[in-house]
Design a protein that fits this description.
This protein is mainly α. Helices cover about 80% and strands about 0% of the residues. The protein has five helices and no strands. It has helices spanning about 1-20, 35-55, 55-75, 80-105, 105-145. The longest helix is centred in the C-terminal third of the chain and has 40 residues, at about 105-145. The relative contact order is 0.12.
Length: about 150
């Protein structure tokens, strides 16, 4: 009972997160490499959820490994702040836990790791937005004060 309820909650959270990410996004002609990697991570996380819903441990492991590998690439293409590095490390460790849970055929542990992974994504994206907004504010202040 716990496993089904937990998996259903994880599914609802993830679908809401995925929907919010894809809502209103348009394809850009010259997409930067970091955005392309994020789309690959999103696709792998969707496949991971499919594996969880279908009790397909091979699919779970394959996509957890894919997420881990992509995140190692992405960590060199995103922000260089201590907090970002912390999120990147946590993401990689959680992806490893997810792959191990799949290897051990432990659906509850895999579902929990998936929720942790999703929460990590949300926190990291929030951090990136905050840093970019702050940098944007600094540029605006520089422009405004340079004109005086």
């Amino acid at each position: 009972m716990f496993g089904k309820r937990f998996l259903a909650t994880a599914l609802v959270l993830t679908l809401g997160f995925v929907t919010s990410l894809s809502h209103g996004q348009e394809k850009k002609k010259d997409e930067n490499p970091s955005a392309a990697l994020m789309k690959k991570k999103l696709a792998a996380s969707q496949k991971l959820l499919e594996g969880l819903a279908n009790n397909d441990f091979a699919m779970i492991k394959e996509n957890a490994d894919t997420l881990h590998d992509i995140s190692r690439e992405a960590s060199f293409k995103a922000l260089k702040t201590p907090r970002y590095e912390l999120y990147a490390d946590e993401f990689q460790q959680t992806a490893e836990k997810l792959a191990k849970a799949a290897k051990d055929k432990n659906l509850d542990a895999a579902a929990l790791a998936y929720v942790d992974l999703t929460l990590n994504c949300v926190k990291c994206h929030q951090h990136v937005r905050e840093v970019r907004m702050t940098k944007g504010d600094e540029k605006l202040i520089d422009k405004l004060t340079a004109n005086k």
